[in-house]
Predict the structure.
Amino acid sequence: MELQSSILMSAKIHIVDAQLSLIHIPLEHYQTYLQALLRLILPPKPDAEDLESTSSWTNRYPFLNISVTPTECSLVCPKSLGKELFGQASANKANGAHAAIISSEDYVVMSVEGEGLEAGKRVLELTSPLALAGISIFFITTYFSDYVIVPAKSRGQVIRALEDRGFRFEKSAEAYVNPAARHDRNKSSTSSFGTLSPSTPPPTTVDELQVRTFALLKRREIVPKVDADIRLVQCAGRRDNPNSFLADEMGLQNGLTKCLINQPRFLSLTLTEDEPASLLLDKRLVTHFDANHVLLGNTEDFLVPIMLDLEPLSLEATGIVCGLAGKLAGHNPDGNFQIAIEMSYLSTARTGTVIVEEKDLQHAMEALRVEEGEEDMN
């Protein structure tokens, strides 16, 4: 069944004016690129004017995501920056298989702001028009906003798909709004390269897409996995006290530096040009920060990452995020009722991570399990 208009959102969508690259770094070569990673969060030495400024080093980039997970280190960053910091290090490697892999095509990111709709349905609502149009995406939800990353070549198709779904542009040709419903900024997170085969015609309904998604996961033997040793905290850099602004900025920077130097088990950092830093990190990393003063958010409520290794899929595969979100949001093609599970999503270069609360872990794993008897659709 198709999504009904009753869950559409009043969400403003803005296309960020930047060419982005996706970068994959194998964990065994993390230390090779550590200095490049640190340069992303350590700005040049400030001059006297900078020291008196209230602008933040976290707003230096139009968009940047650094994610370190149990399976990979992954980045989404401005194309020129990726080439400067990671291209040279890769070129110096004797064996190309050990180098960072930088995407050959460019990407653009859409920021989504709004209120209403719980996180799981929000992911489904935002990804379904693009999945049904056959557009591959990455999805990153942060403490403040959702971000949808799409191939630059698909930009026009993305705009048409959103317009067809009911989104309208507002104020500029790159800002679109869907007026039909509400969007709630609750918990969020961060598509993977997940999609169906490019040669397969796009499905016509969300239910058909969901069936295809789980059939594809079964065919490629991709199963959800949970590391029992990892629990996550969703938070952000604090920026609500002018009197402690510089101290908070330095505390955040020092904490992130400690995290990266020690190669974290799980850390996702998102920086944009108009929001404070957003973090999704292993709860044990909170000790690197003066949490009460540096971090905004509840650092006592833990989330659980459910990871899917999507490396066997094509980079242009489509529909994975939407298919997973649909299952957790209670959409079942067989018509059986399922209680919706609150979720968020983190896309990295080769992994899709569904993030749920601890209390929902068992139900989420049951929902995401690929049944042996599930129909295999080519």
About this structure: The longest strand covers residues 107-114.
